[in-house]
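Annotated sample (chain length 71).
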Amino acid sequence: MIVVTNTSPLIALDRIGQLELLPEIFSFITRPESVTREIQEGVTLGYPDRLVMDTEWLKTVVDPPEMVLRK
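Output written by the structure step:
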């Protein structure tokens, strides 16, 4: 099973001190580059920078083509 996350669950779980639930439920989670960039931008607003870092269970991946905005 492939699990992909967006910004909101990572921030919400971190704020309530439950981020460690994710690797307990899923062995591996991916997040698109755009999610990582969004969190990086939020660090200036007080989001923890630890959410930007890749871990054993959370890896940043290239945005899938269907996520890339077309002009």
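Annotation: Residues 13 and 58 are 14 Å apart (CA to CA).
Annotation: The helical segments are 7-15, 21-25, 33-43.
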